[in-house]
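Final report, Chapter 2: Outcomes

The project's central promise was a pipeline that accepts a single protein chain and returns its three-dimensional structure in a standardized token representation, suitable for archiving and comparison. That pipeline is now operational. To close this chapter, we reproduce one record exactly as it appears in the project archive, with the input sequence first and the structure output second.
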Amino acid sequence: MSLLEVSDLKTYFKTQEGTLKAVDGISFNLEKGQAMGLAGESGCGKTTAALSIMKLLPANGYIAGGSINFMGQDMAKVTGDKLRAIRWRDISIIFQGAMNALNPVKRVGDQITEPILLHEKVDEATAEKRVKELFELVGINPSRIREYPHEFSGGMRQRVMIAMALACRPKLVICDEPTTALDVMIQAQILTLLKNLQQELELAMIIISHDLSVLAETCELLSIMYAGKIVERSSAVEVFSNPQHPYTKGLIAAFPNIKGERIMPASISGNPPNLIKPPPGCRFSDRCHVAQDLCKQEEPSLIEVLPGHFAACHFVNPKGV
């Protein structure tokens, strides 16, 4: 059994205009120590999928169908104290925007100590010792545990969030846009840190990003999301070297090739569909340059087009046939 098994997950939001289908039937498995990237444009459902796994949805959000099985437990049936025992101890999350995720009026050391004291039977001295070890692990001087979030730079605050996520030695860490708003040098340091920690601690990770270059650096597996659905899934190397879905090809083409000709990269025209009233057929059809009448009438299934490589398009050949 995999560490995490997500099957046909559907997460919807109640709004004044109607029900918004933010995640609409996605499936994937994650083994111990694996890193999977979840990529796509803003609003495609990446963060909603992560919050569904953590069961941290806002009041108007709910899981409408499918299942989330973590370490053999059906997360749909886990509530109350049992759920609180799983969060941070077994699954943790690095939220997008570290400054907003940290409490501005509490010292960072106290914020990291809190989950350790909550989940483990240790005294404050032992918890503080671990916080200092975590600071060393993520490259921060342990003497800074008494400082407040505003006394750290953006990159350092992100490192604090990583230390907090590792505080209780979880099996799975979800990283939601871990390098957003950081400069290129700090991004590189954070990505290297995540990759090293994953290997050293045998962490399973889900890294959410719209930046494919981030995922290429850190992930073995890659799932491409569009309008609430996974449209392509395979190893990261296979997706980059042999993309099958037109949306994936468009995302890759939108990034400049530093070794190629110096030209303006192509963009994907149009906008994602309204997920309150999603169109029939393929949700990418209005923006796809190869779409035909069939695409607007019938939704494509996610099929295996090559060994271990899945894509949801009417015009890919199953297993290379």
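Archive annotation: The mean pLDDT is 90.
This record, like all others produced under the grant, will remain available to the consortium after the project formally closes.
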